[in-house]
Amino acid sequence: MSTSDVINPATEDLLRKVEQTDEAGVDDAVARAKAAQKQWARLAPAERAAALRAFAAAVDAHVDELAELEVANSGHPIGNAKWEAGHVRDVLQYYSATPERLSGKQIPVAGGLDVTFNEPLGVVGVITPWNFPMTIASWGFAPALAAGNAVVLKPAEWTPLTTIRLGELAADAGLPAGLFQVLPGKGSVVGERFVTHPDVRKIVFTGSTEVGTRVMAGAAAQVKRVTLELGGKSANIVFDDCDLEKAAATAPYGVFDNAGQDCCARSRILVQRTVYDRFMELLEPAVKGVVVGDPRSEGTEMGPLVSKAHWNSVASFVPDDAPVAFRGDAPSGPGYWFPPTVLTPQRDDRTVREEIFGPVVVVLPFDDEADGIALANDTPYGLSGSIWTDNLSRALRVSRAVESGNLSVNSHSSVRYNTPFGGFKQSGLGRELGPDAPLSFTETKNVFYAIQEA
Ligand code: NAD
User: Active site at which residues (predicted)?
Assistant: First the structure.
């Protein structure tokens, strides 16, 4: 069996060699998952709920271990990594309530009783990216399991370690064998086989729009269900009537969190022209104040990029003649370090249109509300965004006009496990998290029971 090297991006040291699943391995796993799912769906709802709570408890007991593993594998600052592991526990805890609450409907009709059942799909394939390995995996596997499905999960090649560990913790917690299997390997092998395997009834894909498009096209051959969480180029719209100090102080954290490797990164800061100069004066010290360094240190706010290949991709957006306004610091020496970088390009520049997925932000001025909205929407993406204004009517108008799935007014929050998350336009299809996510792992079955005349 072939292996893949897993590298620590802060030190460039080899962490582990991970065995790569081949196509036959996927087929075996799907067969096991199919058998396990039938047993799982037959369990009493309270038993499935208890199993998910036990899995949540196992994650809770290993938050520090999972966090340290993510620091080593992905270079996430330790504070972020602990939050991520705790978030997985919370997602499991939240969806552990599902099995006992997944009720259908009773619909009034003539001549009988009409009821709907939320039937599980069967085996669900989850394909995750490298930027938030644990959290994104849990958004797929927790509601899928809760709705009575089995899950096969393929982590990204560069960052499989925490996901592998979650698979072990699920087994230790007593989840039935075969119900939740983590299959490390290549997208072109494991991911593609999920798409073509007839017994995988749904694909939850998070990653680039390019690969997501391909997954959707492949899934069409079997009318396979898909949820897609894809790229983003989100706007942080700063109006002249907002708390400008706060908008500038928080803007770096709206884009440089996880070194900008965040689908929700507010990577286009749009500033009303009347306050543009003042905003830039305030932004500079805020960007230079971002603490970039050893991800194991509690005070670190930004770690390295995930890999050398990704570093090269990010660096290509900042050539020597790039319109750099100012930059923050980054360590030298080993590790894929890239300093927080602020660009002031023209509106049609590549850096304004393409997802960079690194600590590079563009700042553009706009004239009035209509211009700001048009600029925010001038992208094929529509995942996230922020609006800074103290005018309530403007906040309402603009938040309804921006074509995006997740907006925050006067903050940069995007993800809560109890609210829906997903993209407009080419940022995706379907929604994860929130109260309705389990329904996207079910088929609605309608049954009419005729009543005989007395
Ligand atoms: P990617 O598309 O290269 O890979 C994502 C996953 O797909 C990986 O596991 C990869 O192995 C697999 N894959 C590759 N080729 C495949 C194929 N032919 N068939 C099936 N699977 C295949 O993305 P990435 O570089 O890992 O992640 C970065 C991207 O993910 C960015 O565009 C980012 O915006 C996006 N993302 C989106 C969200 C969201 O919720 N919308 C969240 C995180 C990341």
Answer: 229
The residue whose CB lies within 8 Å of the most ligand 1 atoms, and thus the one to mutate among 6, 195, 211, is: 211
Q: Mark the ranges of the chain whose per-residue pLDDT is less than 50.
A: none
Q: What pLDDT score does 414 carry? A: 72
Residue 309 identity (one-letter amino acid): A
**Residue 454, pLDDT score:** 83
Q: Is 229 a catalytic residue?
A: yes
Residue nearest to atom 11 of ligand 1 (CA): 187
Mean of pLDDT over the chain: 98
Around ligand 1, the residues with Cβ closer than 6 Å are 127-132, 136, 154, 156-157, 187-188, 191-192, 195, 206-208, 211, 214-215, 229-232, 263, 355, 357, 383, 423, 427-428
Q: Which atom of ligand 1 is nearest to the CA of 218?
A: 19
Which of 131, 157, 311, 355 best tests ligand 1's pocket when mutated (most atoms within 8 Å of CB)?
131
pLDDT value, residue 453: 86
The CA 155 to ligand 1 mean position distance, Å, reads 10
Return the ligand 1 atom nearest residue 428 CA. Answer: 41
Q: Which amino acid is at 155?
A: P
Q: Starting at the earlier edge strand, list the strands of the sheet with 442-450.
A: 106-107, 112-120, 442-450
From the candidates 84, 157, 229, 432, which is the catalytic residue? 229
